[in-house]
Amino acid sequence: VHWGQHPLRPEFLESTYFLHRATGDEHYLQVGKMVLMALQQHTRVPCGYAAVNDVRTRVQEDRMDSFVLAETFKYLYMLFGEDKDLPFKLEEYVLTTEAHFLPLSLATDGRNASYLKFNFDEDEDKYRK
């Protein structure tokens, strides 16, 4: 172990969620279950979930970063939940790197088109590419 800290970051669960979503393979549900059980067993504290200072000793830190709830548990919820559990259609959104839902309609409904207009005094065709 070169770096024994585990701040409960979401990246592994993010990948697990996307792999399950893409393949439908039940294996990823089992992976998520193992992660959830480990979180409950090794990081659960009376006021939330504690980061782990060293995975070898399982010594906990007195902190829980905001991404634990905002991302880590969001991916667990989406992994185990069904599409009907969400108040919107996942196909209409893309998740940002911080697990925020960004509507795909932003790229197509013209609301952001004004930011992309440029007025050039010179040869406009030169800049279209």
TrEMBL record:
One of the record's GO cellular component terms: endoplasmic reticulum quality control compartment
TM segment ranges: none
GO annotation, biological process: carbohydrate metabolic process; endoplasmic reticulum mannose trimming
Glycoprotein recorded as keyword: yes
Protein keywords: Calcium, Endoplasmic reticulum, Glycoprotein, Glycosidase, Hydrolase, Metal-binding
Binding positions for Ca(2+) per the UniProt entry: T97
Record bears the keyword ATP-binding: no
The protein's Enzyme Commission number: 3.2.1.-
Compartments in which it is found: Endoplasmic reticulum
Origin: domain of life: Eukaryota
Cofactor(s) this protein requires: Ca(2+)
Family: Belongs to the glycosyl hydrolase 47 family.
Protein name: alpha-1,2-Mannosidase
Species assigned in the record: Pararge aegeria aegeria
Organism ancestry: Eukaryota, Metazoa, Ecdysozoa, Arthropoda, Hexapoda
Gene that this sequence comes from: jg27402
